[in-house]
């Protein structure tokens, strides 16, 4: 590292140094022995106890994660050119890994995986929806968001506004207030997207997360390929995405289930919009109650069941309880399927690692008295990239089986 640096220094323990040198961008407060006096959200250098430069990142005074590294290059200058280069890189990556028709509804920025810690940016047609979960990004969004619009405009992409969905309690961990509204642009917060040839109404102001779940787009296609001629039960359907893909794929009939009446109404509207409603029906019910009820009635005429539940755990503390939930719904679903039936199941919680989820599925199959023939093991779409040195970016598990 150069002897003269303009950034304040934070000294990191030997344990923290090893963690950083293995590639993780987070440095916890417990691993810092000396802190510079600087304002919240400022850029600071991390150095080892021997003075070795480890990287530069955002300071967070209110979080257990005290530094979030954005660079390990001592020669980087964090000016507008740096940020625009990084945004361009993220856009070019999406253009490479996604089909051209997917670029109008995709995740443009996925936090640490794109070098923007705590920032999510989703594109829904002509609206960008952002969620800012780090104070460092919060302080720089007035610079970053116009630069992103500039990158997209340079490639002919028409965006009418940037809408912020900062209505999440986790912002309190960074000392940030909650809120939502237009950062720039405006007009209706309703828009329409087309994913896998299916049209969806998206409400960026009131929809879950940023308005629509984009990470399963190619998993939905995998389901559609197998659905032809099948009688499909889609559990936790939300706004109907898996159900609609199954119907478009040629399913004989699809039943879509969700506990939210509002979600079911949106799913019905999406089915009508796509001309698929005649081969679908919709049920407002708790899946945990519905599956045993169907079993008690002697089963139901389904030969393909899809489970795409919300995250049952958002921390390690509740992982055991979540395991019981995953075990129950997977067991109940497997008990309803005939031999030769098909089964798709997912977990979207980072705190339910693949090995543990696989163990749950094996246990459920054993208790159901069936064997599972794996067809596919999948993850999140590549616009939600996984960094192997940042396990927090790896969260979605998705399996498709035949029951034998």
Kindly state the percentage of residues in helix: 25-40%
The third-level CATH topology of the largest domain is Rossmann fold
Overall strand count: 20
Number of domains: 3
Give the CA-CA distance, first to last residue.
60 Å
Number of helical stretches of at least 4 residues: 9
- Proportion of residues in β-strands: 25-35%
Quick one: CATH superfamily of the largest domain?
Vaccinia Virus protein VP39
Describe the structure.
There is one protein chain. By secondary structure, this protein is α/β, with parallel strands linked by helices. It folds into three domains: 9-71, PUA domain (Archaeosine Trna-guanine Transglycosylase, Chain: A, domain 4); 80-194, RNA methyltransferase domain (HRMD) like (Transcription Regulator spoIIAA, 2-Layer Sandwich), CATH 3.30.750.80; 215-403, Vaccinia Virus protein VP39 (Rossmann fold, 3-Layer(aba) Sandwich), CATH 3.40.50. It has helices at residues 14-21, 80-97, 135-153, 217-226, 241-248, 261-273, 287-296, 319-336, 354-368; strands at 9-12, 26-28, 32-34, 43-48, 53-59, 65-71, 105-110, 119-124, 127-132, 161-166, 179-185, 190-195, 198-203, 231-235, 253-258, 280-284, 304-307, 342-347, 372-378, 397-403. The strands form four sheets. The protein has a seven-stranded mixed β-sheet, sandwiched between helices. Strand 12 (190-195) and strand 13 form a beta hairpin. The longest helix is centred in the middle third of the chain and has 19 residues, at 135-153. It is globular, with a radius of gyration of 23 Å. The relative contact order is 0.09. The mean pLDDT is 95.
